[in-house]
């Protein structure tokens, strides 16, 4: 290399800011600069890969931590007070002593922060020192280094199962297809494998990778936290530009799977990687209670101001009353007397210092400690623990626990939140004919039963074998298919058959296995006989539609096939008509046979399961012979299956594992498989499908038009291996597909198609009303010319950088026209466990539940009924219109109707306030509201929000369907801001993130759809049903505990400080304290601080069982009954009363005697300690050993400390120092007499009121507390009585999940009708019947505009 | 082969994350699950009636005892005495009788007033124990240390009282005992004189001056009793124990000797007062009080009455609760 070259290289590297730096990142390989110093490195301005998430360093800890702590108003206030002590004119205490409390608080907080930071430091260190391979020019190979050594521009190699150290642009993969599989579980929790491809043009033919020759310049985006956005291009030395995108990027934190090794160049490192940019710490929200506390603190400040003013004025007046200067008024140190007015002014500040405790500074620290304790208990709740995923509830926001107890509105997502988001294929309609899959439905029903039985029988025991046993016992023939799926499960998790893992979605037998509809199977079999024809004739004129339908199901998706069991394919590969590529693929997979063998050996671990397996296999065979007449090919295949098994070489036919990004896709692929159309492999440019009769087709994938929410559809463009046609398979929402159907020039054909389309549309409506998710499948055959034209446009779009997304979408829309409808599918998304019961309980608790979903109207309404959001007796209004005027008039009209019904029930609500035991069920109908996304946006546009809210308030539930993520958050915001209520959003997907962040509390469900929702949430749970305990029990507890604690804290400070204030009237307002300042500080710091904290963490006013049994108890929290404005002032009055008692009883006792200051103050201090602690004792509702320990401990601590202090403090606080005063007092009987009577008189009013409350038992809380004292059975009986008393019309919860019972009966009737009357039109009649029965009751549609 | 490896590694990975022993399952303990056995009292009328009754009766009992005791204590207060006020003392039971002086509207508890240093000054010679700055402005008198310094000491009460019994028109001096009127701890532990120099206390205070308002230096407070001088003078100690309230008594003497030991015999007495201490500048009044004591200290009607009232209130409350109980605790709710 010539020196000139080196110079130019250096010059290149020297440029500090490459052009376009503001918009894009430009980087080049580091290799040519390997040995140069840092300042010559070309990419030095980019962050390196060592991460530091700590906030502090050893040196900066103290200043930075202090700086942060002083951001809190409370701390600043306290320090200002402490500083005030050092002003000589006003000092009340020893200045040094005044610093102690603030120092203790600051130190405690600092220790907590330091510990947290240290843990982060350790985690960072561990990450930074993880090993990785970086290419070195010197060694001409990859050398092992640490993560922290990785820089932007380095070449890094990752091997299988290694975690990726930085964001790497993939340039090399050991995979011949140039793909690299990664698992992004660390990043977003999605466990399915994702494919990444090497940048186009970098696939080295010989599989080698030589970074030295990489001379391109990389331009890419600046770092951003958007995981799904990455684009850029390579500027090759020959000026050719190669575009790349997120499919070429390996993300830090992901794990390489399934690929030997991959290598690439680092584009983002360290803190600039997408993983780190997404990693925001816990969120800090301010809770409603805390906001209230802050206003009350302001009241305290006002009170303090008034008291100080009184002190200042009093001092002035007091000084004025003397005819001459009295001997006890001290001059200043220069022997001058300052004027009374000025002295009064100074006295104001002295008073501030004296009475500073009125502002409960330690309150904030206490609240924080309490919340830590509360979160400890929430996360430790075993009821909120999910066995399957081994995960507890996560509390991500640390300081809004008490908000959980005040929720009035819940906004819930539907899919994945109310439902499992585990899709089960239920029905399909092909070419206008419905196939109801009765066998499948029966099987699913039976499956449900066994699963629920299973769970009863074996709770802790290993699940898989027991399930097998159980099936064997029952011998339900319909189960056998799921059996085979389960064995495949065993293969995947062979080392842990006995532990329950369900980390990979869609692996439960319910989703993976579909029992084919006999009728449809027959049709497809018929069609299979035509296959030869089909192969010969170029276009088969619709007769092969069934074929196409299933092919579309199998192909038109992004499902990755991850594990293949292959010898079987090899057997058939001899019959393959397609090329060598697949064969080579199969060859490479061939060596997997030993896995197959190992899988075969698993059942031996459990002889029982083994035998049951065999039984099932035999039964299966029988079953097939039963239906054998209908499907000869199936019989053949099962026969060959058996023969192969005998040879001992073959696996289960289900040995494929599909990993899909969306569960619908997997469900469809499994459905296709059930009919013999098995997706075997997917490479970026090729999909392989096995046809029912065994032929394997390999389609060349020309393009994939990915799904997006605007198009609501996806397509694949493939070249048919036999006909060589370019075929587009599209699947998507019915609204999206139906509009795009083509018009045929042939009139008869056109009519036929129209008929099919209208029939399919009817079926779709039927599916939707049965709560199924619908998808339309369509295809289109493209002429070669048309495709070429399109492809060139597409290529252009792909290589642009700026608005690539828009262009790509445009091209997609351009292609997806004139489709031919193939059919439609209905997929069931099963309700999660206990959803109806949870919703019923939440509603009983006075919480309005709104469901916001993107699903279509009918699907959503049906789910709403099945999860009891709507009851059959409810009046359901549907708002669905496009026009503004109509929208307004409908709203008005509906409102009018609702008001007519609700008018009489007004009196009912009044009654419920008066008499707690009155039956509280209104006689009028309850309302439900369904509103469409379009109408919703109309409402927002036309400023009809208030009308909508008014209407919604009258409704039991509101269902918004077809809403966008943005609309979801707009609805939440509307309710939150306009109604001023506490809102909670719960969701599981990325589309719920907006809503989750908008609500007061966001809850993420960690389920099938990744972690975005969880990342944005405040609490993360695993099942919707956990919401019940979280809100009703923990919410109630946290709120009542904290509210009571806060109230108590205010009381405590006011009560204690007022003692000092009253004394000012007897010491000339001079700011004297009659209690030694050490004891005063200890009083707040040690003697009375721990019991309220313990109270705030541990007190249990009502047991969890009762709270769950009587959800209406939650209303106390909703209405903020523990902490209202009135509560605050009542407790202030009580504090004033108690302080008056605590001051004046000792005062009158010692009046006119020779008592000295501290002897006078000691009984007051003692009395206030007793009063304050016993006040708490009245409030404590359950006394555990810990409560006793803290209370007794506090009293003991007081006496011990006071005695020791009085004994050793000979010389402090002169002249009336506390020496031996406590001892003297404790030897005096009057001291005890004063203490007893003062405490009794001080607490008598509160005690009497509490006794009266307890006796009259007006509030449900007291009644519930009485229930708690009963035995379990008696309590359950009482709860039942209570409920029946209050809501006689409430029906007991069905044990059978309503959706199942409903859909089963529906299924049944539908099936019967379709059996009896084969005519499709007749079938439709029966559909209408079911629809009619379905919509009977009060359900009304005020307006329904068709799409 | 990659797929091969993946399958095995996946298994390993999964067992690693959720293998036995490392489960994330919360402990099922009573503490963690908030199920600790607890006493859950529900305050209701039925339960508290006996409590109220008992407390009420006990309080009434205590109140009666206190009241009786307090009534047995006799107090004779002579307000604003000047010169030789004649006193007719009723027969007193129980001795000894204590003689107090009282000051009203005197705020010994004013902050800043109550400063004093040089109390126990670590036993060195006095020049070594410099007065605390909090004594200012009674710290130095023309750069000489004041002993004792501070405004409390400076404003020490200095009236003197002599009590005579008028027996057949002759004045018979009643012996007043000035020993042990201060707290034992004040005399023995808190306050110390500087060590005597050559057996002389005066020498020990060499280099200090008397407080401005004092007529005599500190080592010469009680010429009759050399041991009652310096910082250990009993009157000084009593004065230094600052009163809590503006109207206060301070013990002057006890009458413990001879025929007066068990109380003053009934008769006429006269009190000779040497009037030194001005009260006009703070509009105060002086008084002299004769009182005997009991186990509960001086006379105090208040505490007894308070107990009686509270006790009665409790009894009344128990009656009210009984009514409430009868009315609202219907049997079916009594579960």
Question: Short summary of the structure?
Answer:
Chain A: Mg(2+) binds at residues 413, 415, 988, 992. The complex is a heterodimer of chains A (1347) and B (335). In chain A, 51% of the residues lie in helices and 14% in strands.
Description of the molecule:
The complex is a heterodimer of chains A (1347) and B (335). With 1347 residues, chain A is of the alpha+beta class. Chain A has a nine-stranded mixed β-sheet with strand order 14-33-32-31-15-27-30-29-28, sandwiched between helices. Chain A has a nine-stranded antiparallel β-sheet with strand order 17-16-26-25-24-23-22-21-20, sandwiched between helices. In chain A, strands 3-2-4-13-5-11 form a six-stranded antiparallel β-sheet, with no helix packed on it. In chain A, helix 42 (1157-1179) runs antiparallel to helix 43. The model of chain A is unreliable at 16-21, 448-508, 534-542, 564-653, 905-922 and 1288-1347 (pLDDT under 50). Chain B is an alpha+beta fold. Helices cover 28% and strands 18% of the residues of chain B. Chain B is built from seven helices and eleven strands. Chain B has helices at residues 2-18, 45-72, 151-154, 184-190, 201-204, 234-240, 301-328, and strands at residues 75-79, 86-89, 97-104, 140-141, 144-146, 160-167, 170-173, 208-209, 248-255, 267-274, 285-291. In chain B, a hairpin with a 2-residue loop joins strand 4 and strand 5. In chain B, helix 2 packs antiparallel against helix 7 (301-328). The longest helix of chain B is centred in the first third of the chain and has 28 residues, at 45-72. The radius of gyration of chain B is 34 Å and the shape is flat.
């Amino acid at each position: 290399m010539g020196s000139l070259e080196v110079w130019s290289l250096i010059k290149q590297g020297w440029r500090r800011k490459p052009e376009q730096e503001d918009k894009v990142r430009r980087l080049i390989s580091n290799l040519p600069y390997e040995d140069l110093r840092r300042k010559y490195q070309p990419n030095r301005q980019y962050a390196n890969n060592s991460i530091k998430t700590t906030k502090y360093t050893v040196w900066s800890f103290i200043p930075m931590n202090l700086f942060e702590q002083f951001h809190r108003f409370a701390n600043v206030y306290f320090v200002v007070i402490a500083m005030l002590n050092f002003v000589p004119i006003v000092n009340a205490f020893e200045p040094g002593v005044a610093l102690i409390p603030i120092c203790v608080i600051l130190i405690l907080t600092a220790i907590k922060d330091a510990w947290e930071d240290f843990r982060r430091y350790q985690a960072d260190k561990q990450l930074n020192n993880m090993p990785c391979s970086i290419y070195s020019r010197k060694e001409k190979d990859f050398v092992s280094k640490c993560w922290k050594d990785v820089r932007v521009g380095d070449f890094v190699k990752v091997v299988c199962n290694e975690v990726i150290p930085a964001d790497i642009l993939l340039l090399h993969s050991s995979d011949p297809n140039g793909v690299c599989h990664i698992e992004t579980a660390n990043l977003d929790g999605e466990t399915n494998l994702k494919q990444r491809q090497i940048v186009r043009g970098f696939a080295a033919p010989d599989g080698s990778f030589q970074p030295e020759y990489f001379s391109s310049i990389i331009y890419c985006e600046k770092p951003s936290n958007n995981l799904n956005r990455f684009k850029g291009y390579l500027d090759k030395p020959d000026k050719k530009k190669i575009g790349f995108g997120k499919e070429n990027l390996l993300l830090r934190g992901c794990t390489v799977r399934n690929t030997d090794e991959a290598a690439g160049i680092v584009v983002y490192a360290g803190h600039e990687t997408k993983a780190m940019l997404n990693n925001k710490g816990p969120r800090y929200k301010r809770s409603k209670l805390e906001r209230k506390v802050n206003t009350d603190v302001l009241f305290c400040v006002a009170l303090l101001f008034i008291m100080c003013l009184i002190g200042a004025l009093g001092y002035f007046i007091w000084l004025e009353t003397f005819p001459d200067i009295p001997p006890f008024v001290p001059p200043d140190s220069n022997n001058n007397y300052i004027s009374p007015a000025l002295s009064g002014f100074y006295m104001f500040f002295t008073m501030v210092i004296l009475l500073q405790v009125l502002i409960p500074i330690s309150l904030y620290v206490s609240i924080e400690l309490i919340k830590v304790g509360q979160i400890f208990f929430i996360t430790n709740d075993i009821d909120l623990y999910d066995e399957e995923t081994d995960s507890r509830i996560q509390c991500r926001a640390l300081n809004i626990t008490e908000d959980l107890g005040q929720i009035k509105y819940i906004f819930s997502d539907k899919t994945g939140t109310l439902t499992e988001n585990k899709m089960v294929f239920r029905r399909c309609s092909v070419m206008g004919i419905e196939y109801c899959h009765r066998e499948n439905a029966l099987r699913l029903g039976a499956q449900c039963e066994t699963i629920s039985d299973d769970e009863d029988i074996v709770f802790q025991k290993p699940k898989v074998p027991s399930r097998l046993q159980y099936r064997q016992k029952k011998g339900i023939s319909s189960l056998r298919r799921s059996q085979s799926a389960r064995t495949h499960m065993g293969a995947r998790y062979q080392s842990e058959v006995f532990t329950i893992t369900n980390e990979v979605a869609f692996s439960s037998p319910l989703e993976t296995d579909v029992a084919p509809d006999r009728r449809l199977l027959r049709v497809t079999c018929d069609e299979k006989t035509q296959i030869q024809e089909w192969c010969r004739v170029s276009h088969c004129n619709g007769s092969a539609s069934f074929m196409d339908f299933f092919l579309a199901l199998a192909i038109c998706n992004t499902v990755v096939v991850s594990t293949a069991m292959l010898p079987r394919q090899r057997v058939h590969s001899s019959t393959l008509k397609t090329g060598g590529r697949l064969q080579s693929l199969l060859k490479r997979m061939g060596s997997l046979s030993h896995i197959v063998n190992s899988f075969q050996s698993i059942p031996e671990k459990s002889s029982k399961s083994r035998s049951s397996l065999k039984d099932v296999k035999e039964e299966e065979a029988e079953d097939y012979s039963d239906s054998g007449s209908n499907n000869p090919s199936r019989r053949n295949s099962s026969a060959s299956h058996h023969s192969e098994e005998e040879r001992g070489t073959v696996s289960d036919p289900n040995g494929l594992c599909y990993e899909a990004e969306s569960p619908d896709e997997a469900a469809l692929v499994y459905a296709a498989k059930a009919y013999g159309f098995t997706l075997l492999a997917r490479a970026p440019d090729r999909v392989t499908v096995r046809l029912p009769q065994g032929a394997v087709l390999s389609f060349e994938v020309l393009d994939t038009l990915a799904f997006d929410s605007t198009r609501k559809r996806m397509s694949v463009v493939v070249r048919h291996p036999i006909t060589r046609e370019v075929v587009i398979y599209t699947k998507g929402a019915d609204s999206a597909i139906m509009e795009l159907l083509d018009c045929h020039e042939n009139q008869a054909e056109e009519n036929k198609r129209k008929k099919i389309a209208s029939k399919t549309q009817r079926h779709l409506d039927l599916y939707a009303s049965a709560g199924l998710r619908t998808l339309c499948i369509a295809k289109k055959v493209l002429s070669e010319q048309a495709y070429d034209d399109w492809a060139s446009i597409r290529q252009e779009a792909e290589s642009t950088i700026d608005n690539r997304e828009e262009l790509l979408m445009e091209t997609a829309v351009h292609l997806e026209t004139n489709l031919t409808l193939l059919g439609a599918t209905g997929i069931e998304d099963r309700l999660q466990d206990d959803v109806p019961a949870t919703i019923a309980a939440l509603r009983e608790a006075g919480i309005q539940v709104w469901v916001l979903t993107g699903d279509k109207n009918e699907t959503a309404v049906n789910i709403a009924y099945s999860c009891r959001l709507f009851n059959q007796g409810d009046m359901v209004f549907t708002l669905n219109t496009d026009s503004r005027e109509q929208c307004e008039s409908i709203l008005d009209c509906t409102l009018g109707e609702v008001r007519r019904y609700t008018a009489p029930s007004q009196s009912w609500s009044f009654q419920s306030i008066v008499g707690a035991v009155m039956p509280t069920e209104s006689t009028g109908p309850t309302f439900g509201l369904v509103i469409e996304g379009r109408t919703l946006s109309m409402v927002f546009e036309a400023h009809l929000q208030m009308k909508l809210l008014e209407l919604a308030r009258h409704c039991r539930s509101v269902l918004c369907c077809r809403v966008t993520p943005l609309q979801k958050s707009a609805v939440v915001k509307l309710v939150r801001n306009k109604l001023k209520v506490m809102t909670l959003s719960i969701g599981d997907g990325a589309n719920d993130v907006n809503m989750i962040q908008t609500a007061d509390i966001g809850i993420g469900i960690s389920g099938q759809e990744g972690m975005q929702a969880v990342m944005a949430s405040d609490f993360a749970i695993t099942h919707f049903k956990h919401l019940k305990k979280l809100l009703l029990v923990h919410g109630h507890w946290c709120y009542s505990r904290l509210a009571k604690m806060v109230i108590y804290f205010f009381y405590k400070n006011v009560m204690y400080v007022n003692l000092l204030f009253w004394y000012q009237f007897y010491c000339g307002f001079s700011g004297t304290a009659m209690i030694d300042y050490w004891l005063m500080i200890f009083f707040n710091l040690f003697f009375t601080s721990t019991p309220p904290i313990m109270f705030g963490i541990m007190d249990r006013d009502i047991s969890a069982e009762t709270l769950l049994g009587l959800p209406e108890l939650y209303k106390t929290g909703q209405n903020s009954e523990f902490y209202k404005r009135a509560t605050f002032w009542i407790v202030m009055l009580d504090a004033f009363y108690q302080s008056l008692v605590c001051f004046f009883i000792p005062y009158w006792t010692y009046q006119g005697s020779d008592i000295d200051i501290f002897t006078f103050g000691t009984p007051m201090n003692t009395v206030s300690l007793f009063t304050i602690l016993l006040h708490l004792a009245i409030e404590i509702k359950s006394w555990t050993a810990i409560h006793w320990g803290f209370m007794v401990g506090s009293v003991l601590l007081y006496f011990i400390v006071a005695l020791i202090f009085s004994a050793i403090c000979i010389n402090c606080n002169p002249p009336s120092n506390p020496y031996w005063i406590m001892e003297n007092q404790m030897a005096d009987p009057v001291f005890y007499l004063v203490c007893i009577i003062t405490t009794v008189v001080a607490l008598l009013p509160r005690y009497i009121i509490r006794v009266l409350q307890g006796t009259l038992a007006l509030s449900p809380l007291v009644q519930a507390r009485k229930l708690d004292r009963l035995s379990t059975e008696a309590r359950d009986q009482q709860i039942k009585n209570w409920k029946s008393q209050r809501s006689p019309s409430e029906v007991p919860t069905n044990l059978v999940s309503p959706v199942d019972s409903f859909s089963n009966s529906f299924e049944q009737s539908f099936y019967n009708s379709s059996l009896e009357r084969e005519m499709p039109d007749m079938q439709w009649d029966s559909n209408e019947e079911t629809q009619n029965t379905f919509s009977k009751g009060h359900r009304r549609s005020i307006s329904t505009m068709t799409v | 082969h990659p797929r091969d490896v993946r399958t095995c590694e996946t298994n390993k990975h999964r067992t690693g994350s959720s293998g036995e022993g490392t489960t994330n399952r919360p402990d099922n303990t009573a503490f963690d699950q908030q199920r600790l056995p607890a006493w859950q009292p529900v305050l209701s009328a039925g339960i508290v009636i006996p409590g109220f009754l008992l407390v009420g009766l006990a309080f009434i009992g205590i109140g009666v005892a206190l009241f009786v005791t307090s009534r047995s204590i006799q107090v004779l207060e002579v307000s604003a005495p000047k010169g030789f006020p004649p006193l007719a003392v009723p027969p007193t039971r129980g001795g000894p009788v204590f003689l107090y002086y009282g000051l009203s509207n005197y705020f010994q508890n004013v902050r800043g007033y109550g400063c004093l240093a040089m109390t126990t000054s670590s036993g060195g010679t006095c020049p070594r124990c410099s007065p605390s700055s909090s004594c200012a402005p009674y710290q130095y008198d023309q750069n000489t240390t004041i002993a004792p310094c501070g405004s409390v000491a400076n404003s020490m009460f200095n009236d003197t009282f002599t009590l005579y019994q008028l027996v057949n028109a002759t004045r018979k001096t009643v012996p007043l005992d000035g020993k042990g009127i201060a707290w034992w701890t004040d005399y023995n532990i808190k306050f110390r004189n500087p060590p005597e120099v050559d057996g002389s206390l005066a020498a020990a205070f060499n280099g200090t001056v008397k407080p401005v308002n004092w007529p005599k230096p500190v080592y010469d407070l009680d010429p009759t009793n050399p041991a009652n001088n310096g910082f250990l003078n009993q009157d000084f100690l009593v004065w230094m124990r600052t009163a809590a309230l503006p109207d206060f008594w301070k013990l002057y003497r006890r009458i413990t000797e001879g025929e007066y030991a068990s109380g003053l015999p009934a008769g006429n007495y006269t009190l000779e007062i040497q009037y030194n201490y001005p009260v006009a500048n703070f509009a105060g009044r002086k008084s002299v009080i004769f009182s005997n004591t009991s186990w509960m200290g001086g006379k105090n009607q208040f505490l007894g009455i308070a107990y009686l009232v509270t006790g009665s209130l409790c009894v009344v409350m128990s009656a009210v609760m009984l009514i409430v109980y009868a009315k609202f605790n219907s049997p079916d709710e009594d579960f």
